[in-house]
């Protein structure tokens, strides 16, 4: 261990002559070793064991189940759409589904982190700062909220936009106003609406979701599948080639999202296509990481127990959405409004937004009272957008970004209340 | 009920409900077999849990968790479910239970034992007093003989406040620091201590005469003014005088133990009587209502004062927190605060007619061979105090508690108000993946460390920062450990951008560095909150 440390110190680049290399080195070195810095006089002499790296990594850890299931579900949906009864069951064709998921997801993950971290490193070197950990979480979140077949250049562009305009322009980690991950998604949403919006589900590997459409792979996917087919052949397992041969989307595959169905025909229309248990466990098409309610909730629980995510925001957001859904139930003007309020939580990405997006401490309200208001409004407005907006029946991304903008205002009024309390206290004194 | 107990109960309930679920799925079997299965599973679980609970208790003892009745098992005990009662001595005052706060539980508590190391030199340093001009008027010269209580120097800005010799002896050095500022005036103590003689006024005399006497006697700097945490201004009439009789800071001395020594109890009461004459308001005593503290009669039976009982974790013992709950400081108001040993020094002046700065100082921290109390005087030389007492020289000595004290070397001297000399291991080590998988236990507010389940296990502290400084990211953390109606993070930001109106509105007057020290400790972003606050306080004071 001592040797490694010495070697590392020897190869440390000079900060003056090569600032970028030094920043890079520093980033990786502090990743490997907690620094040997000690407290300075004029402040505390001992510090809490918690730092920002540990905070961030716990969010990433909480996401791991979503990653595991998301990867698998990409493949599962791909083969489910083919309608080959050999792959209908969740665990049939396990190796094919898992590897297919990896082939799709890994490039997204790599591109998201290469572009995002690259920009962070570059800015850190320019400013002479240490690399801050903010992108650790954003980089893990962004692939999970994208459609699986998003072109990589689009992802790269979205990430660059989010990090440069959303974060670095405002001063880096801790200074941004809008949630970085959602900013990347909203960029794709508005810049390339054909890729992400609409009422059609996202199933990887098809140019269009219509009966008779055959799976189509690009050259990278062909290459990877070929490599793995060779491997599978050794074990006498089913190969990608055999599985895809002559297969096409079956008749009756609607390709509609649960919410698209609910918008048109209420809860019955949804349950005609998806069962509640499918929606709850997440074996439905969607963005990569958000489909499984149960695994997202496990992540939320990890965040709450460790105290990393604000339970106030999560609870109030749930209450807000619930209140809005109950109001809609009573109103009942459209089929979507009549969906029983508790079934609203089976559809869409409410829980993912609640656990991982709304709780971002930088962009959320920073006062505890403010967090209650902030969460409640996200819940209420998000559901309003989901149910009323005909173009795109889901609202959490837009609701959270909207409330990100309003969070400082909410805090302002909470602080003003604190100031008034203090003034009132002084007034009572002088009066008495 | 404590959070750890709630967690324990939840775990048990979760297991019980999972067995129910299991049974619900065994459809088709008859009711009796289900019932039988339930009983068997319940019995098995009961055995498993009681064994597990006992193993936990044994383990807890092995790793040195406090054995004094703390519950380390799985199940909460009956008395824990019912909740603890308020101590019965708290009936003669107001009672405040503060939920926010955090106990920094580290090794090295001073044993209740008093030694008396030989200290040769003592010093008074102008740097100990905020807001004083850096070059005060020194009225002694090297070689002068002084008695305890003789004037050493005074502040040119407020020349009626005099700073006096804590001991009798010979002035051996007037050390200068940066830009010719006076660092300290050093006195080589006499073998036999003599005090200056005083013409004691009666306590019935007018307030002005009394203040005049206190100013001339040398005890005045014991009185601190809030806001700004500076030596009190004799021309003010404070709205109250506040004294905290317990210290909840890590490794802090037990003030109840200190006041029980010698004639300290009588001196403390006498001091309170004097202070009572200085304010048109009241003298307020903050007293511990924590069940673990054995409160001295001198505190709970003190007369002529308002008593306020506080229950909670650090920083509940901070006088600033107590003032906030008793009678918070509004803009334009002044209050005075003293520490217990300061009151005792004033009391001794009136009891015995001598200037006696004798005080008990806790040598606390894991780097001492035997952490204990030492009997010494104000401004004692650090090197003399810790001679042969340390186990290592890779150590940082802190005059005061580890969160708000000042770093001192063995050539330097105890701070004016210090009743604690803490030793901490210097933490200049690299820790591989220390942020991810800590290799040694760390004190932390965060529940990402397993230590949160065992809040009573003491951890060895060091000065490592455990991470690098970052921008403010995490929110709500400071509020969790500051039991005041204040938003520390927003206040800090308003200080950083020099927003006077916001600073005042958000309650800067109610805070001193020691009050935000715990916030600084828990800060994930490792921000220097105490420095920021001091910068704000100085700015506000300059603006008047």
How are the elements arranged and paired?
The complex is a heterodimer of chains A (432) and B (544).
Chain A: H1 2-11, H2 19-32, E1 33-34, H3 52-62, H4 64-82, H5 94-127, H6 134-144, H7 152-167, H8 180-191, H9 193-196, H10 219-235, H11 240-244, H12 258-273, H13 276-281, H14 293-306, H15 311-331, H16 350-357, H17 368-388, H18 396-431
Chain B: H1 3-25, H2 31-62, H3 78-82, E1 94-97, E2 111-115, E3 121-124, E4 137-138, E5 145-146, E6 151-154, E7 162-164, E8 169-176, E9 182-189, H4 207-217, E10 224-226, E11 230-231, E12 240-244, H5 255-260, H6 264-276, E13 282-288, H7 297-300, E14 306-311, H8 319-327, E15 335-338, H9 340-352, E16 358-364, E17 372-377, H10 382-385, E18 395-399, E19 406-408, E20 420-425, E21 431-432, H11 477-481, H12 488-496, H13 500-505, H14 513-522, H15 529-543
Parallel strand pairs in B: 1-14, 2-17, 12-13, 12-15, 13-14, 16-20
Antiparallel strand pairs in B: 3-9, 4-6, 5-8, 6-7, 8-9, 10-11, 10-15, 16-17, 18-19, 18-20
Walk me through what this model shows.
The complex is a heterodimer of chains A (432) and B (544). Chain A is an all-alpha fold and 432 residues long. Chain A has two domains: 17-33 and 51-197 and 202-211, no CATH class; 291-425, no CATH class. Helix content of chain A is 64%, strand content 0%. Chain A has 18 helices and one strand. Chain A has helices at residues 2-11, 19-32, 52-62, 64-82, 94-127, 134-144, 152-167, 180-191, 193-196, 219-235, 240-244, 258-273, 276-281, 293-306, 311-331, 350-357, 368-388, 396-431, and one strand at 33-34. Chain B is of the alpha/beta class and 544 residues long. Among the domains of chain B are: 3-82, no CATH class; 465-544, no CATH class. In chain B, 30% of the residues lie in helices and 18% in strands. Chain B has helices at residues 3-25, 31-62, 78-82, 207-217, 255-260, 264-276, 297-300, 319-327, 340-352, 382-385, 477-481, 488-496, 500-505, 513-522, 529-543, and strands spanning 94-97, 111-115, 121-124, 137-138, 145-146, 151-154, 162-164, 169-176, 182-189, 224-226, 230-231, 240-244, 282-288, 306-311, 335-338, 358-364, 372-377, 395-399, 406-408, 420-425, 431-432. Chain B has a seven-stranded mixed beta sheet with strand order 1-14-13-12-15-10-11. In chain B, strands 2-17-16-20-18-19 form a six-stranded mixed beta sheet, with no helix packed on it. In chain B, strands 3-9-8-5 form a four-stranded antiparallel beta sheet, with no helix packed on it. The longest helix of chain B has 32 residues, at 31-62. The interface between A and B is large, with 62 and 75 residues.
